[in-house]
Amino acid sequence: MIDVTGFQWLNEPKSWSAAETLTVQTDPDTDFWRTTHYGFIRDTGHVFAREVSGDFRLRTSFAGAYTHQYDQAGAMLRIDAENWIKTGIELVDGHQQASVVVTRGLSDWSVTPIPDAERISIEIERSGDAVTVRYGLDEAEPTTMLRLAYYPPAVPTLAGVMCASPDGPGYSVTFDRLELTTG
């Protein structure tokens, strides 16, 4: 069962439910991106998060029915529209990629090819001025490091799960784990 106490939506999707799992049908034309390469700013993706300060660990596991270019799901940290990190799975050229976008005014994007997985686990750990992103495939715990990035220390941030459909009509994603621990 997912405990959603204290979590709230940024860009709430039209269709979602929370009980044993959090299931979301993404809306079309949703994404998070700032300028780099594409020249546009999008701040319309779905985020289900709560505010935390200081050090924390966020863990989530999810499975999506990704169908269109850039369909994505995972975890997100967000200070404001210009300072955030999103990570998870992104469908790129027909294949799942482990993806991280770090945005400090402008977005940068890195992807790592992975075998298509039924389910992925993501962990974001904030310690001081650093965020470490790890992932695991299928039933594996998130132990493979994907990215180490600067993140302003001690600034309140939203931390939670995200999903979006930049190019497609939307798809279904189910989060079966959402754990946020502080300290």
TrEMBL record:
The residues forming the signal peptide are none
* Gene3D superfamilies for this protein: 2.60.120.200
What domain of life does the native source organism fall in? Bacteria
Q: Which Pfam families match?
A: DUF1349
Record InterPro entries: ConA-like_dom_sf, DUF1349, UCP022704
Name listed for the protein in its UniProt record: DUF1349 domain-containing protein
Top-down, what is the taxonomic lineage of the species of origin?
A: Bacteria, Bacillati, Actinomycetota, Actinomycetes, Pseudonocardiales
